[in-house]
Design brief:
The protein starts with a helix and ends in a 7-residue tail after the last helix. With 297 residues, it is an alpha+beta fold. Helix 2 runs antiparallel to helix 5, helix 3 (183-206) runs antiparallel to helix 4 and helix 3 (183-206) packs across helix 5. The protein contains six helices and eleven strands. The longest helix is centred in the C-terminal third of the chain and has 37 residues, at 219-255. A five-stranded antiparallel β-sheet has the order 5-6-3-8-9, with no helix packed on it. The chain has a four-stranded antiparallel β-sheet with strand order 1-2-7-4, with no helix packed on it. The radius of gyration is 31 Å and the shape is elongated. The chain folds into two domains: 3-19 and 152-290, no CATH class; 36-147, Immunoglobulin-like (Sandwich). 45% of the residues lie in helices and 23% in strands.
């Protein structure tokens, strides 16, 4: 396998490994100091997944607390009404806030209440801040919870689609080359054009004017070759629009803006970014394998 093909293949493998890496991170609650704590846990931390959430509020202060307002991050959706334990406490969800109150004596030092409810996780992977305020207290207690990409299946599906389209596109290109030019002649023209560019660059670096003038006489022949090679490429451009439609009319509506992969240094990627990245590198790979790219020396 030539060095160029090896590099392209290694690049695609590295990109696939990075972009399909599930962001499975440990969930850590980083809380602000206060007279009580708010702990958040869930049955499923995957992006855009339905999950059962459990909130545990523990009183660490000396005052008895009789009510709380817990604000759920705005990126959550389909939030259900909560259930609260012990039964002396009740909860009601309205407009992003769970209101907790008691018919008893309240929450004294060392005691806890547990709140459970269902919600759909945000579509973007990241760390979200939850906040709570006790009735009559000025201090707001906050805690963070991380929503992650827990499945590589969507990224693999997009990779397979991008690979199929890339190799189909390159295959059609080769068929068009064979029809309009002839494959053997195309390879000869590739070689002549590569040699011409190499000689032209060498002459320019050396400042060899005589050689440059000699090469100019061959320029018209090279231009004719380029024009002949452009015929299948023009047709290929028209066909390529069909693949763009797959991106806009199929993949984006199906996957939406949900985070599918994570690229270090960039962040979570939805299909609108992931598919073009896959397509670009897979196009290079398919062209190398099928011999569409110009010959390199």
């Amino acid at each position: 396998m030539k060095l160029g093909k090896r590099f392209a293949f290694a690049t695609v493998l590295a990109l696939l490994t990075i972009c399909t890496l599930a962001v499975i991170v440990s969930v850590a609650n980083a809380q602000t100091a206060g007279t009580y704590t708010l702990d958040v846990s869930s049955s499923n931390k995957g992006v855009n997944e339905v999950s059962t959430y459990t909130l545990v509020i523990t009183n660490n202060g000396s005052s008895t607390l009789t009510g709380f307002n817990v604000t759920i991050p705005g990126d959550y959706s389909n939030i259900g009404q909560p259930s609260v334990s012990p039964s002396s406490w009740t909860g009601n969800y309205s407009e992003g806030v769970i209101n907790l109150s008691t018919s008893g004596t309240g929450l004294s030092n060392g005691q806890s209440i547990t709140v459970t409810f269902q919600a759909t996780n945000p579509i973007t992977a990241g760390t979200y801040q939850w906040s709570s305020q006790a009735t009559g207290a000025a201090t707001t207690v906050t805690t963070t919870y991380t929503i992650a990409i827990t499945s590589i299946i969507p990224a693999i599906e997009i990779f397979i689609i991008a690979a199929a389209i890339a190799f189909l596109n390159s295959g059609i290109n080769r068929i068009l080359v064979g029809y309009f030019i002839g494959w053997e002649q195309y390879r000869v023209m590739q070689k002549e054009m590569a040699e011409f560019r190499s000689e032209q660059m060498a002459a320019a670096r050396a400042g060899d004017q005589k050689r440059m003038e000699k090469l100019k006489k061959k320029q018209s022949q090279i231009t004719n070759m380029q024009q002949k090679m452009m015929k299948p490429q023009f047709i290929q451009i028209g066909i390529s629009f069909l693949y763009i439609l797959v991106w806009f009319l199929v993949l984006i509506p199906v996957f939406g803006t949900t985070s599918i992969a994570y690229l270090p240094g960039f962040g979570p990627l939805p299909v609108v970014w992931l598919y073009p990245i896959f397509s670009f590198f897979l196009a290079l790979l398919s062209q190398r394998i099928l011999g569409i790219n110009p010959i390199e020396h």
